[in-house]
Amino acid sequence: MWMINELAYAGPEHLDPAFVAGYDRKQGHPDPAPDIAEFRDHGLEPGASILDLAAGTGRFAIAAAETFAVTAADVSPAMLSYLRAHAPAGLKVTQGGFLSYTGGPFDGVHTRNGLHQLPDFFKGIALQRIADLLRPGGILRVRDLIYDFHPAEAPAVFDEWFAGAVTDPAVGYTADDYAEHIRTEYSTYRWLFEPLLEQAGFQIVSVAYERRLYGAYTCVKRP
Ligand SMILES: C[S@@+](CC[C@H](N)C(=O)[O-])C[C@H]1O[C@@H](n2cnc3c(N)ncnc32)[C@H](O)[C@@H]1O
């Protein structure tokens, strides 16, 4: 009765095959190597099992599958169809979301720029479910747009963010894209996100922020 429909929160653009076809270009083809290295640096050996949740077009999953046994899950049929068309033989692709995927236990979970689709209450449930999908000592690598500032600082931080935006929406994110993100998606504050991680049973072992907006966390599931 109270569980949300994940597709209704997935972001309409992620359900649009035309947007999905241009997604990697708009993203600027981010390099997944540092995230793969982070799993290795925190003890995951080649062949370890990793779940990539909200995998999108598979930027991380496709590269990580060269080293690890990767399962890529997403809720968007358009993303899944793109990913299936580009997946190497060893990569498992499946429909499933933060609030619905079942499987595991995995040695690692990776998720990038997906959790902000969920309001904080459901983010808490998602993080608890991720902890349940990991073996004790398993590694969570999470990147997302997270606000590393006090509410009073929002106008100044956002002004600077918008000033660095591109003007062509095909090759990057415009100020309109950022403003729409702020209005319609559920990026939260760092000082709320970190207690959510801790309440779900994670120990944060590394954290880095860019421009007080982009957080990258490595966490260990407590035994
Ligand atoms: C901004 S894209 C990020 C994709 C990829 N992780 C990346 O970094 O390029 C957000 C992705 O989250 C997916 N998504 C949205 N809500 C989801 C949910 N509840 N469970 C799983 N995936 C979800 C979307 O379909 C989309 O593929």
Task: Please specify the SSE layout and strand pairing.
Blueprint: H1 17-21, H2 23-27, H3 33-41, E1 49-53, H4 59-64, E2 69-74, H5 77-86, E3 92-95, E4 106-112, H6 120-133, E5 134-145, H7 154-163, H8 175-184, H9 190-199, E6 202-210, E7 214-221
Parallel strand pairs: 1-2, 1-4, 2-3, 4-5
Antiparallel strand pairs: 5-7, 6-7
Helix pairs in contact: 6-9
S-adenosylmethionine binds at residues 6, 9-11, 14, 27, 53-56, 59, 74-76, 79, 97-99, 112-114, 117.
Strand content: 15-25%
The CATH C-level class name: Alpha Beta
In CATH, the homologous superfamily goes by the name: Vaccinia Virus protein VP39
H/E series: HHHEHEHEEHEHHHEE
Q: Quick one: overall form?
A: globular
Ligands bound to this protein structure: S-adenosylmethionine
Mean pLDDT: 97
CATH topology: Rossmann fold
- Low-pLDDT residue intervals, each spanning 5 or more residues: none
Q: Please identify, by name, the CATH architecture.
A: 3-Layer(aba) Sandwich
Q: What would you call the structural class?
A: alpha/beta
What fraction, in percent, of the residue positions are helical?
Answer: 25-40%
User: Roughly how many Å is the radius of gyration?
Assistant: 17 Å
Count up the domains. Answer: 1
Q: Care to count the β-strands?
A: 7
SS element count, helices: 9
Give the distance, in angstroms, between the N- and C-terminal Cα atoms.
32 Å
Please state how the strands of the largest beta sheet are arranged side by side.
3-2-1-4-5-7-6
Q: Quick one: biggest sheet?
A: 7 strands, mixed
Quaternary assembly:
single chain
